[in-house]
Design a protein that fits this description.
It is a single chain. The protein has 199 residues and is an alpha+beta fold. It has one domain: General secretion pathway protein M, EpsM (Gyrase A, domain 2, 2-Layer Sandwich). Helix content is 62%, strand content 21%. It is built from three helices and four strands, in the order H-E-E-H-E-E-H. Helix 1 packs antiparallel against helix 2. The longest helix has 102 residues.
Length: 199
């Protein structure tokens, strides 16, 4: 009977299998290392992109803050200009109102009444003057009441006074003014002082 020694073959086979396992393990380690390296590189790239994006957003934020600051200044200037325009408009209306009041006052003065002082206090007007008689002063007051721009004409003081040997009545009265909108042509002049038509 022939005996064949199979031990060396089995050892070789076992060594081959061990080498295969070691080789597979090495390849697995290398692949895992490469994957970890790729993942680390990818993460670093993503982090770098995120930092760049954050810097871009911060720069945009600074630019927007500057624009918002300019816009706030513009709004402040606009509000100031609006206040000035409203003041000019108020003065223009007041000028027309005073002109209208003075015209109505001049139309109401009879020939036997003379004014010595007129004080315009905005909504009220105070008048001091001289009249030929009590009747002349009351006629003047009635004429003021008949005007569409005055109401509440009230006599404050009336007393006898002699000026140059002539007996007169010294009086003082107050009245309220009614605000009446200016006519269309006056509104056009207020809106366009240069003479152009209002749009």
């Amino acid at each position: 009977m022939i005996r064949i020694n199979l031990l060396p073959y089995r050892d070789m086979r076992r060594r081959g299998q061990i080498l295969k396992y070691i080789l597979v393990a090495l390849v697995g380690l290398i692949v895992t290392g490469l994957l970890l390296l790729a993942s680390y590189s990818w993460t670093n790239m993503e982090l770098s992109d995120a930092k760049n994006s954050l810097q871009g957003i911060q720069l945009q934020n600074i630019a927007l803050k500057n624009k918002i600051g300019e816009l706030s200044k513009f709004k402040e200037v606009q509000a100031e200009v609006q206040k000035k325009l409203e003041l000019v408009d108020k003065l223009q209306r007041g000028r027309f109102r005073s002109l209208q009041s003075m015209q109505a006052l001049s139309e109401s003065i009879p020939k036997n009444v003379w004014l010595t002082r007129v004080t315009d206090n905005g909504s009220t007007i105070s008048i001091s003057g001289l009249g030929e008689s009590n009747r002349a002063v009351s006629g003047f007051m009635r004429a003021l009441e008949d005007q569409k721009v005055f109401f509440g004409v009230s006599l404050q003081v009336i007393k006898r006074e002699s000026i140059g040997g002539v007996a007169l009545r010294s009086f003082s009265l107050t009245m309220n003014r009614i605000d009446i909108a200016p006519p269309a042509d006056a509104q056009d002049k207020i809106a366009n002082p240069d003479g152009g038509k209002a749009s």
